[in-house]
Amino acid sequence: MVKVKVVERPPADLVVQSWVPELWKGMKVTGRHFFRNVLTGKGIVTSQYPEARRPYPPRYRGKHRLMRREDGSVRCVACFMCSTACPADCIRIVAGERGDENEKYPVVFEVDFIKCVFCGMCEEACPCDAIRLDSGVHRVPAYTRADELSGKEDLLSLGTLSVSRQGGEFK
Amino acid sequence: MLEFVLLTLLKILGFVLVFCIMLAAVLTWTERKMSAVIQDRIGPNRASILGIRAFGLFHPIADMLKSFVKEDFVPAGANRTLFFLAPAIALVPPLCAFAVVPFGPGDLVISNLDSGMLFVFAILGFGIYGTTLGGWASANNFAMLGSLRGAAQMISYEVSMGLNLVGIFLVFGSVSLTQIVAGQGELLWGWLPRWGIVVQPFGFLLFLAAAMAENKRAPFDLPEGESEIIGYFVEYSAMGFATFMLSEFVEVIVIACIAATLFFGGWQIPWVDPAGTAGGWITVAQVAFFAAKVLFLCWFQMLIRWTVPRFRYDQVMSLGWKVLLPLSLVNILATAVVLALIA
After folding, report:
1. Which of A73, B9, B124, B225 has its CA 20 to 30 A from that of A141?
2. CB of A45 within 8 Å of any CB in chain B?
3. What is the DSSP letter of B268?
């Protein structure tokens, strides 16, 4: 059985029904807000958007960024861990031969921001600190679906040097 | 004769066209600004002239320009003549009501009619035509229903609005606004101004309730219901709509003027020159005092409008017929008995 809690209605006696004391109570509330905001402006919560922008919270993620090596090339080794982990299937990678000990690099690295849910699982899956979801740059709305794709150059331009070592060893 | 005509035209220009119309325009700004401030927002502040914003005071000008250049849409099947006439019929009667309101001592009234308040009731009764014709001429069923609600509500509350003021007429022994104001210059027990609110406090509450319902503003805005219900000016756009809105704000000022005149002593400053014969700066102060009372009562109506939620329609009707009407009859009876006992 569901326990039902019956809340008694407040009595609608003659004082309430006459409206005058209740109206007075309400006008005390609205009047208090009116005078406080007109005289001091302290209660007002509006922010004047285009001129005054509220800062994003410190843990805001924003767009992805691709990190770089010391020589400036992309850290990503096109292992597909991020695109496999992605629940929204928004990362498209085309791998290419690098020709050195790192073997592979992404020829194409595209994130579709229409699909992306900004969950951060790509960042967690990445074995070599190549993709991070912490640029803090808001994704800009676009007019076409094609414009919502962010390519390697765009993501790399947000990225910085990463000094972490792959495999946990210093060379 | 020429002097009389010129003086009257000057009074009409100063009081009705400058003070009241300008105040109505400012009230459209006040309404939005007050709602914002009460709800902890800023409200309109973007309209600017040469970068000067002045708290958004230029918004009425921007609204007016916008209303003029928008398309004046007439629905198919509408009665074009009545459709364009209805906003004017809604606006003109409240403007006419200012004719008998004394805004200062002596000759500072456009027309000193002996039947002052009766004239106001008669002329405000015309306002119903604006509502009804506006809804009917639109050839829209929802507008029609809105105008029916409006007509029923306005007629119902007109009855009790008239009866509420009978107490005042009994106390001051006149329906002429000038004489009622003169009567309010007297003192009770040698110190208390005999204002209408002092001798008829109950009548004031009843009058304010009935007058706000008559004006179709929240909490009685069922004929129009700007946010949820479809009202009688749903088919109006551009200047037609703006005229309906303006007439509503002019009616706010009419109610404020009449309440100030009947219940707050009109142009009387307590204990100062009750006969109104001093002239000079005292007369200027008295006119300013009247304006201050009107401004306060406009502000008060707006505060009520942003405090109380809307009634249900059956509540509106039963409040009018079952509560306000009997109470105003009781008020008349009690006033008459007390007056008979004193005399």
Report:
1. A73
2. yes
3. P
Task: Please answer whether residues A118 and A61 qualify as being in contact, where contact means their C-beta atoms are separated by less than 8 angstroms.
Answer: yes
From chain B, the residues in CB contact with A30 under 8 A are: 38, 303, 306-307
What's residue A94's pLDDT? Answer: 94
Flag if B40 and A45 touch (Cβ within 8 Å).
Answer: yes
Report the relative pairing of strands A65-66 and A131-132 from DSSP bridges.
antiparallel
* Model confidence pLDDT, tens digit, residues A38-65: 898 888 888 888 888 888 888 888 889 8
Of the candidates B57, B243, B283, the residue with the CA atom closest to the CA atom of residue B133? B243
- Quick check: A33 contacting B, CB < 8 Å? yes
Query: Distance between CA B44 and CA B48 in Å, rounded?
Result: 11
**CB contacts < 8 A (A, B):** 38
Please tell me the distance from the alpha carbon of residue B115 to that of residue B118, in angstroms, as a whole number.
Answer: 5
- Give the CA count within 13 Å in the CB-facing half-sphere of B263: 22
First to last CA, chain B: 43
- Contact (CB<8Å) B205/A30: no
Contact (Cβ atoms closer than 8 angstroms) between residue A167 and residue A96 = no
- CA–CA gap between residue B83 and residue B235 (Å, rounded): 9
Give residue-wise pLDDT tens across range B163-177: 988 988 998 888 888
Q: How far is B34 from chain A (nearest CA, A)?
A: 7
**Residue corresponding to tokens 């809804």:** B135
Neighbours of B247 (CB within 10 A): 25
Q: Which residues of chain A does B205 touch, with a Cβ-Cβ cutoff of 8 Å?
A: 20
Q: What does the pLDDT read at residue A90? A: 92
In angstroms, how far is CA A50 from the centroid of its own chain?
20
The CA-based angle B88-B219-B75, given to 5 degrees, is: 40
3-state SS assignment for residue A147: helix
Mean pLDDT value across chain B: 88
- Interface predicted TM-score (ipTM): 0.83
CB contact under 8 A, A23 and B304: yes
